[in-house]
Amino acid sequence: MGQVNMERLILSQCFLNDNTPATIEEKLSEYVIGQKELVRAVADFVYYHVMRRMHPELPVRNLLVAGGSGTGKTEVFRWVSKLYGEVLCIKIVDGSRLSKDGWSGSYKIVDMLSEDLDILVIDDIQFIGGKDSTVEEFFHTFNALINANKQI
Length: 152
Known about the structure:
It is built from 6 helices and 4 strands; from the N terminus they run H-H-H-H-E-E-E-H-E-H. By secondary structure, the protein is mainly alpha-helical.
C-alpha cells in the first residue's frame, strides 16, 4: 500500500474512533434513499479501507457495484467524498471517456492510483473504449488494477 503520511494516519485514527460501518451507513442513508444494500456495502468498504490504512497487512478488498441507470451507484460515492473527503481521496472517472487502453485524456487510469488516491470509482465502465467495448475488455482493465494491488 505504500507510505502513508502522519497526518493521514492521525485523521484515519480519528475517523475510526468516531465511526463504525453502522454509523457510516446511517449518515449515508440520510442522503441516498432506497438503496439500503448498496449503502451498507459502501459503508463497510469505506470503513475497511481506512482500517487497512492503519493495518496494511490486511488484504485488499475491492467493490464492484452493478445496477441500472439512476440507482444511486455513483451518487453514494459522491456523498462519501463530500462527507469523508478529509479522510478519503476519491476520484470518480467517467468510463465513457476512457480508451480501451485505460486512458482518460492525458492520464492513464493505473497512473491515477497514486498513493494519495484512496478510492477510484469508474462510472459506466462498460463504455471503456466506446460502445464497441466488450465484456472481455472490461475484465481486462479490472484485473489489471487488481493485479497491481490497487483498491477499486
